[in-house]
């Protein structure tokens, strides 16, 4: 299956439906990350970090790659969830060269597109405030395998030793 998603469809399918249903792992890569609020728990809104915290409590492993430090609202919400700080199942790296936007769930489904992990990017904002975004949702095993291999290579720091931006990298993996 390859399904093209636009705008709010990204939020509805990926963020609202698939992400909370993860059972083993979630890998997310984004250039920009902001304090996105999502409909969660009995139709109430909370930061997507609440979804991450619940997944961690259920034993789901989360990897997050982002290109720049998030703003103060994100950091405030991040600090509300001790799981994000204390869990061995939550790993996060900052790579200024990362511009990839993807979400991999349990090695069985992937979303790749233009959207950053922000409310405007993922379609969580109102129609007059969200970005115009597009992406592909796929369950094709070969595509997912290649994407996971690339993600893992980046995550494990294989590009760090020859990175031309090492002088601005706040936290090189290697």
Task: Offer a concise description of the structure.
This protein is of the alpha+beta class and 174 residues long. It has a single domain, classed as 2-Layer Sandwich (Endonuclease, Chain A).
Can you describe this structure?
The chain is an alpha+beta fold and 174 residues long. It has a single domain (2-158), classed as Endonuclease, Chain A. It has helices spanning 8-18, 48-57, 72-79, 82-86, 119-122, 141-155; strands spanning 2-6, 25-30, 37-40, 44-47, 61-66, 90-94, 102-105, 109-113, 134-138. It is globular and about 45 Å long. The N and C termini lie far apart (37 Å).
Largest sheet: 7 strands, mixed
Q: Strand order, biggest sheet? A: 1-9-8-7-2-5-6
Beta-strand residue fraction: 25-35%
User: CATH homologous superfamily name?
Assistant: Endonuclease Chain A
Low-confidence stretches: none
One letter per element, helices H and strands E, the order comes to EHEEEHEHHEEEHEH
CATH topology: Endonuclease, Chain A
What is the 3D form? globular
Query: Which architecture would the CATH scheme give at its second level?
Result: 2-Layer Sandwich
CATH class division:
Alpha Beta
Mean pLDDT: 89
Coarse structural class: alpha+beta
Q: How many DSSP-defined strands?
A: 9
Taking the alpha carbons of the first and last residues, their distance comes to: 37 Å
How many structural domains in the coordinates?
Answer: 1
Estimate percent helicity. Answer: 25-40%
